[in-house]
Backbone:
């Protein structure tokens, strides 16, 4: 099962990269866009065909190691396609 | 008296720290490899600065799972003294041995220079050789030293008097203008509730003898052993 984990700065956590990018967008004339936040994507493959099993294992990975709950939130998608 | 200095792949201040304790303070040193779990009977432990595991994922996020860290956590739980310097501070945060987490500096720049910090208290052994309100001139060198926690945690940290050092100016003024990197309440160093675990971004081992241009760090290292 292919997994894509999205890690994003928690609400209220200052994200200097987001601020810089938002300023850049504005200076380049891309009006009407804001609230830029920069996170990261972690791709991995979990060796199971069972979605519940995969989900439980990825939650455990995220809580233990892949994210720091003090500063980050996460979501993930599961893709069964080979 | 013997100090243990933990060495992770990517630690780069371990030799400086060893020099400061052994040659400047005349204290015995044991190097503790991260894959070992034997603390070799040391009386205090330093997690030195550097870029353990390349700072991949998050600073300290990989190092905190090294086998030695279980022994360090047990040592601290029994009241053993632990000092984390820079990357060592980041590792203590990731390990949950101190409150909060590190973000990139708000300037998004690596900051490498001398800074002034104010001693906030003398309750923890590390700061016990200093006076409250004393100013120290100490080098920093980090990209991720912007200490963060949520409002509730910050209120508890302040109520319990856990900050040990704050970034300030030459007059000791702590303000947003004198906040080096964006850390909440200018916190540069922090202790746990018991006081035996302390983390700080400044590098006392880089200013512990006149040849290095300053001796303000020496009292912090002496305090660890006091």
Residues:
């Amino acid at each position: 099962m292919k997994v894509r984990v999205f890690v994003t700065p928690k609400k209220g956590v200052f994200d200097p990269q987001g601020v810089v990018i938002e300023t850049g967008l504005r200076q380049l004339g891309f009006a009407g866009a804001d609230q830029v936040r920069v996170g990261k994507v972690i791709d991995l493959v979990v060796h199971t065909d069972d979605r519940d099993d995969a989900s439980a294992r990825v939650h455990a990975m995220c809580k233990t190691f892949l994210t720091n709950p003090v500063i980050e939130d996460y979501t993930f998608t599961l893709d069964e396609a080979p | 008296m013997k100090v243990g200095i933990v060495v992770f792949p990517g630690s780069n201040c371990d030799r400086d720290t060893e020099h400061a304790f052994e040659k400047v303070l005349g204290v015995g040193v044991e190097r503790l490899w991260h894959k070992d779990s034997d603390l070799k009977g040391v009386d205090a432990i330093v997690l030195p600065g550097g870029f353990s595991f390349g700072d991949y994922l998050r600073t300290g996020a990989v190092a905190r799972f090294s086998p030695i860290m279980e022994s360090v956590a047990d040592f601290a739980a029994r009241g053993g003294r632990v000092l984390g310097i820079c990357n060592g501070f980041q590792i203590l945060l990731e390990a949950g041995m101190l409150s909060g987490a590190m973000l990139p500096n708000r300037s998004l720049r690596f900051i490498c220079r001398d800074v002034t910090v104010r001693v906030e208290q003398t309750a923890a052994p590390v700061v016990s050789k200093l006076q409250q309100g004393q100013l120290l001139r100490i080098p920093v060198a980090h990209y991720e030293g912007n200490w963060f926690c949520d409002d509730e945690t910050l209120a508890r940290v302040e109520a319990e008097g856990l900050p040990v050092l704050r970034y300030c100016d030459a007059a000791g003024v702590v303000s947003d203008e004198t906040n080096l990197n964006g850390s909440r309440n200018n916190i540069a160093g922090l202790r746990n509730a018991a006081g035996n675990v302390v983390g700080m971004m400044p590098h006392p081992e880089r200013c512990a003898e006149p040849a290095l241009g300053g001796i303000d760090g020496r009292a912090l290292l002496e305090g660890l052993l006091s």
Observations:
- The first strand of chain B starts at residue 2 and ends at 7.
- Chain B has a mean pLDDT of 97.
- Chain B has one domain: 2-224.
- The helical segments of chain B are 14-24, 67-77, 87-94, 151-159, 218-224.
